[in-house]
């Protein structure tokens, strides 16, 4: 690369900053709106900086709605989904990557196709099944429903990652007398940590952000709701208190934004490995 | 501790695998199937069986589906309704419009941001982090933020449009069909471009630097390099990302449901929304399942392009 003209450098930085500012503005606006006193929300022109931040909006939110329950429901669902999906898909992905199995190719294709199923179709039979088994209203219904979409994708991502790892290490471990499961646990998983992190992040984010499954299976009482359902219901209320909604939105997105900031580099690597096939 | 006459047993003493030594070549395949078993069982129960069940529901006159309720006789009524009613065709048209607008614009924005953060500059890692950030924002949260920005009385977007003199009175994003469609597009593009830019960036990084250097030596300008090197190299990746976005728009529910609930006058009712509406608002699950099966078939046709490409990596 030759040296860039100073004017070119300036233009580049200006473009980067303007692009980032434009693309991230909605997130900024969420924070500003949450902190405005409600009278300022109808101000003309709109106020772009919270001169008088109202931190008690968060207390309002907790007092008026079972927000902490929604929060803990969401966390429980996300962790259960992530754990189950990872456990199942690690084994399956390893088998698909390392063994030439009869039917393995068919299964791979099936996994790819099931990634593309419309969730609005799946909820109809799942609803019938959960009604017969009494799972409607239970958090497990959402965990199971989410697994339909997350397990295939995780398996696919992890298979892509295992494919990039040389099998020699595992062979050495097997020769040294390590059991096959022990090899996966002690050799494969530590080496595949970045891929696992990306997959776990993906499962967590997808599960955390779910709206459809919760909306369909958890409608009985608002105490079994998830965060996304709670926020959607706030928007539907007769008088829309935008500052309260935005406060809820901040709390609903902060955990996954933090997870994202920590694990982004793994995710990009993982997704890229999946796309370059 | 170790039985010297059967050295293969080795460390696998005790537990589930004590009897078969899976590291022996002739048992390798068995071990593979064993590893696959949980996934296969899970998918049989939560994917294959539900799909078969939904096809069966779509061929019955069912209002609220449940299992073992004394099966209704099979009928094609739901499919007669499906192809005879204007609702389906309208939803199909809305879905295709949405795919065209969202796919087209987010590939342009995604490509531009990917090109931008592929340049060499200080803070590039942070810029990459930021441009992909909306990917992590939950769909419902993204939707309520935009619903507030597009509010017809106090929304920021209307204030900007009025201030700049582009419109004389606020646009009613909630009640005007075209404006509501545009509102859905805004949210979908904002949510959808980050994944595009991540994948396109990965594509850009895999183009060999030598090609650019050789072109420079031959005297090719910036545009020529873009046109003859970047674009041809990127076409496959663009194709994959477009198919993925198309499938996402086809299947998405949360954004439209929270923003417009498919309205006004069905202007934003996609096939997905129609499926849900029929099944869980009008409680005509038979008809809902028929719409869903149609969506599934269309998604399968579209994803053939993707599967064909990706299947090459399945051995």
TrEMBL record, chain A:
Record's bilayer topology term: Multi-pass membrane protein
Subcellular location field: Cell membrane
UniProt-listed PROSITE patterns: ABC_TM1
Transmembrane segments: 12-31, 67-95, 107-130, 136-158, 187-208, 242-263
Domain ABC transmembrane type-1, first and last residues per copy: 71-263
Statement: the UniProt record of this protein carries the keyword Membrane: yes
Main location: membrane
Biological processes, Gene Ontology terms: transmembrane transport
Alphabetized UniProt keyword annotations: Cell membrane, Membrane, Transmembrane, Transmembrane helix, Transport
InterPro entries from the UniProt entry: BP-dep_ABC_trans_perm (IPR050901), MetI-like (IPR000515), MetI-like_sf (IPR035906)
Gene Ontology CC terms: plasma membrane
Family: Belongs to the binding-protein-dependent transport system permease family.
Entry protein name: ABC transporter permease
Provenance organism: Pseudoponticoccus marisrubri
UniProtKB/TrEMBL annotation, chain B:
Gene Ontology cellular component terms for the protein in this record: plasma membrane
Membrane topology: Multi-pass membrane protein
Top-level division of the source organism's lineage: Bacteria
Domain ABC transmembrane type-1: 92-306
Protein family: Belongs to the binding-protein-dependent transport system permease family.
PANTHER family documented for this protein: BLR7065 PROTEIN, SPERMIDINE_PUTRESCINE TRANSPORT SYSTEM PERMEASE PROTEIN
Protein name: ABC transporter permease
């Amino acid at each position: 690369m030759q040296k860039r003209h100073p004017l070119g450098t300036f233009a580049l930085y200006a473009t980067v900053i303007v692009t980032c500012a434009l693309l991230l503005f909605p997130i900024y606006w969420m924070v500003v709106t949450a902190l405005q006193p409600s009278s300022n929300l109808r101000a003309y022109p709109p106020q772009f900086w919270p001169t008088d931040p109202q931190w008690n909006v968060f207390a309002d939110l907790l007092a008026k709605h079972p927000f902490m329950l929604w929060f803990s429901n969401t966390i429980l669902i996300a962790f259960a989904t992530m754990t189950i999906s990872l456990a199942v898909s690690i084994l399956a992905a390893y088998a698909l990557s390392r063994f030439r199995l009869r039917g393995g190719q068919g299964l791979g294709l099936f996994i790819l196709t099931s990634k593309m199923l419309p969730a609005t179709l799946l909820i109809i039979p799942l609803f019938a099944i959960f009604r017969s088994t009494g799972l409607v209203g239970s958090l497990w219904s959402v965990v199971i429903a989410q697994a339909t979409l997350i397990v295939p994708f995780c398996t696919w991502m992890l298979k892509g990652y295992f494919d990039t790892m040389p099998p020699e290490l595992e062979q050495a471990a097997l020769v040294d007398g390590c059991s096959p499961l022990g090899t996966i646990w002690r050799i494969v998983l530590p080496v595949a940590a970045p891929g696992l992190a990306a997959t776990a992040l993906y499962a967590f984010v997808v599960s955390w952000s779910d709206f459809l499954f919760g909306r369909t299976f958890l409608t009985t009482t608002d105490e079994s709701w998830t965060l996304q359902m709670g926020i959607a219901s706030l928007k539907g209320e007769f008088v829309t208190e935008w500052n309260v909604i935005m406060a809820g939105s901040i709390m609903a997105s902060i955990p996954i934004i933090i997870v994202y900031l920590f694990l982004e580099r793994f995710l990009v690597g993982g997704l890229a490995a999946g796309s370059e096939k | 501790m170790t039985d010297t006459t059967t050295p293969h047993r080795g460390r696998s003493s005790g537990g589930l695998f004590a009897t078969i030594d899976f590291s022996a070549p002739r048992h390798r395949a068995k071990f593979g199937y064993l590893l696959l078993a949980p996934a296969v069982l899970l998918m049989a129960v939560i994917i294959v069986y539900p799909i078969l069940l939904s096809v069966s529901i779509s061929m019955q006159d069912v209002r609220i589906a449940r299992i073992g309720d004394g099966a209704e006789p099979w009928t094609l009524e739901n499919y007669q309704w499906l192809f005879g009613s204007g609702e389906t065709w309208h939803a199909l048209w809305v879905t295709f419009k949405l795919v065209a607008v969202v796919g087209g614009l987010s590939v342009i924005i995604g490509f531009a941001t990917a090109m931008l953060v592929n340049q060499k500059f200080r803070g590039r890692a942070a810029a990459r982090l930021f441009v992909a950030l909306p990917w992590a924002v939950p769909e419902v949260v993204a939707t309520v933020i935009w619903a507030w920005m597009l509010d017809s009385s106090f929304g920021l977007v209307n204030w900007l449009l009025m201030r700049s003199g582009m419109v004389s009175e606020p646009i009613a994003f909630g009640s005007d069909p075209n404006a509501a469609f545009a509102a859905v597009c805004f949210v979908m593009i904002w949510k959808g471009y980050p994944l595009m830019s991540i994948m396109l960036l990965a594509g850009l990084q895999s183009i060999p630097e030598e090609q650019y250097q050789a072109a420079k030596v031959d005297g090719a300008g910036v545009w020529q390099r873009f046109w003859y090197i970047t674009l041809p190299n990127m076409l496959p990746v663009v194709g994959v990302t477009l198919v993925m976005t198309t499938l996402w728009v086809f299947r998405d529910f949360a954004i439209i449901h929270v923003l417009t609930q498919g309205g006004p006058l069905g202007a934003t009712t996609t096939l997905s929304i129609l499926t849900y509406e029929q099944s869980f608002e009008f409680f005509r699950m038979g008809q809902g399942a028929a719409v869903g099966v149609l969506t599934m078939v269309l998604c399968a046709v579209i994803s053939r392009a993707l599967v064909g490409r990706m299947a090459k990596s399945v051995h």
